Amino acid sequence: MLIIGSHVSFNKNNQLFGSALEALSYGSNTFMFYTGAPQNTIRYPIRDDLTKEALVLMKEKGIDFSKVVVHAPYIINLANPDKEKYDFSLSFLKEELKRCTSLGINKLVLHPGSHVHVSKEEGIKSVIQGLNLLLKDDLPVQILLETMAGKGTEVGSTLEEIKEIIDGVQNKEKIGVCIDTCHLNDAGYDLSHLDAFLKKFDETIGLSKIGCVHVNDSKNVRGSHKDRHENIGFGTLGFDTLLKVLYHPLLENVPKILETPYVDRLYPPYKEEIRMIRNKKFDEQLIEKIKNSQTNF
Ligand code: FE
Ligand code: FE
Ligand code: ZN
After folding, report:
1. Which of 26, 84, 119, 222 has its CA 20 to 30 A from that of 152?
2. What is the whole-number distance in angstroms between the Cα of residue 93 and the centre of ligand 3?
3. How many angstroms does the Cα of residue 155 sit away from the middle of ligand 3?
4. Which residues have CB atoms below 5 A from the ion given as ligand 3?
5. From ligand 1's centre to the CA of 166, what distance in Å?
6. Which domain holds residue 67?
7. Which long-range contacts (CB under 8 A, 24 or more apart) does 195-204 make?
8. What is the CA(14)–ligand 3 centre distance, in A?
9. What total number of domains does the chain contain?
10. pTM of full prediction above 0.90
């Protein structure tokens, strides 16, 4: 069965319950959220009553909570060893892991980071060091390193770099990977030959490490190192290639998360995109339909 959802919001007043409701409104059976705004560090205490209500709702509606993931905020950067920034990233990530634990979330997606002014090798070392400080035996959360587009000085835009980080992590079962189709494309990987890519992934890292797939089309050509997401079927990857990723038997039990852009920056496209994915038929009028359905009131 296809496990599909999108990135949803998590707000102060409704928390996990609100996130689950939003996911259900899109026809999702999984979801991903940030425990606050992705770009800042303002975080409110987790309310257990809302978590409990959310669990009841999810059980009733058939969302397997063990597949729901959290995304760490972008400001965490373990690849920059600059003392002050590094300590901040470490302590924030530690708090984020605690929040995941109290929510009962067992997978946290993390961008490996940008090495900024040090060498890539030093950046990678710094990421490994940070992960080894945090990934303790009793931690109930696994960190999923996201494959990046290779924008600026980003670490983790090749499978070899991800492998290098995983190799350096002592507690191997606490580390996994989140593949992002837009990022892979922009990093130079050809997903139209999906079996060849999966074979390479398996040989380099191991397919069992994949804990999440971000399914996004890309606004840019393969190898552009840009990282600009496009709606499903409207970018350079195209509907057929993304459909292959979504329905590949080797990725069947992995949650697929859409992080495609809001239409006109206002309207979430997820309900319509998920419907189109389930129909397995591209609708070139989709964006127009979303716009019209919103303005025809
Ligand atoms: Fe991400
Ligand atoms: Fe992503
Ligand atoms: Zn991205």
Report:
1. 84
2. 19
3. 13
4. 227
5. 18
6. 4-295
7. 198/248, 198/250, 198/251, 200/159, 201/159, 204/159, 204/160, 204/163
8. 26
9. 1
10. yes
CA of 194 to the centre of ligand 3 (A): 20
- Residues, Cβ < 5 Å to ion ligand 2: 180, 214
Joined together, the tokens standing for residue 98 give: 């605690």
Residue 278's CATH number: 3.20.20.150
- Render 195-260 in DSSP notation, one character per residue: HHHHHHHHHHT-GGGEEEEEE-EESS-TT-----EE-TTSSSS-HHHHHHHHH-GGGTTS-EEE-P
Residues 6+ apart with CB under 8 A from 40: 73, 75
Task: Give me the average pLDDT of each 10-residue run along the chain (297 residues).
Answer: 97 97 98 89 92 98 98 95 97 96 98 97 98 97 98 98 98 98 98 98 98 98 98 98 98 98 96 98 96 75
The protein residues having their C-beta less than 5 angstroms from ligand 1 (an ion) are 146
